[in-house]
Amino acid sequence: MALERTIAYLLLGSNLGNRAEILDQAIQLVGKNIGNVSEKSSLYETDAWGKTDQPVFLNQAIAVNTTLTAVEVLDRALEIEQKLGRIRKEKWGERLIDIDLILYGNEVINIEDKLQVPHPQMQFRKFVMEPLNEIASEVVHPILNITISEITKNITDNLEVKKL
C-alpha cells in the first residue's frame, strides 16, 4: 500500500549571508529530507517584521509533496535550519534561515507549544501571503474557508514586499 501524500506549504526566509544561496540550499535539503518540491514562488524581498532594526529578508514559498506527518515535517525543517547554521537568539531576530510550516493539506493541527497549522499569523503577514499566493492562490484556508487569493487581496499589512 502506498503512503498517503500530502501537500505541505513552507515559507523560507533569510536575512543574513548569501540569502538566495541559503534558500536554494534549504530547498535542496527539503527535497532530500521532507519530500518532492513541486512548486517554488519567486523570491520576495521584505522588510523585517516584528523586530525591524535588522537586514531585509528574502522570502520564498514552496509546495512539498510529502508522506511525512506535519510534526515530522516540522522536526525535519528544524533539523535543516540547524544544518544550515541557524542560531535562535531572540524572537523575530535576524537569521540565516527560517523554515515555517504554513499549511499541511487541509488539516487543522494544534499541538500546544509545538505546532499550529495553518500558521496562526499567516493571514496577517504580507511576506507570507504574497509568495504563497503565487503558488497556491486557489488553495482554501481550512479555518477561514476562503482562498489564499482572497486572503491576499484583503490583507491590511502594509509592509513592503517586493517580488524580485
TrEMBL record:
The keyword Nucleotide-binding applies. SUPFAM superfamilies: 6-hydroxymethyl-7,8-dihydropterin pyrophosphokinase, HPPK. GO terms for molecular function: 2-amino-4-hydroxy-6-hydroxymethyldihydropteridine diphosphokinase activity. Pathway: Cofactor biosynthesis; tetrahydrofolate biosynthesis; 2-amino-4-hydroxy-6-hydroxymethyl-7,8-dihydropteridine diphosphate from 7,8-dihydroneopterin triphosphate: step 4/4. Its EC number is 2.7.6.3. Residues 91-102 form the 7,8-dihydro-6-hydroxymethylpterin-pyrophosphokinase domain. Keywords: ATP-binding, Folate biosynthesis, Kinase, Nucleotide-binding, Transferase. PROSITE patterns: HPPK (PS00794). It comes from the Bacteria. It holds the Pfam family HPPK. Belongs to the HPPK family. NCBIfam families: folK. Catalyzes the transfer of pyrophosphate from adenosine triphosphate (ATP) to 6-hydroxymethyl-7,8-dihydropterin, an enzymatic step in folate biosynthesis pathway. PANTHER family: 2-AMINO-4-HYDROXY-6-HYDROXYMETHYLDIHYDROPTERIDINE PYROPHOSPHOKINASE (PTHR43071). This is 2-amino-4-hydroxy-6-hydroxymethyldihydropteridine pyrophosphokinase. It comes from Pedobacter fastidiosus. The lineage of its organism: Bacteria, Pseudomonadati, Bacteroidota, Sphingobacteriia, Sphingobacteriales.
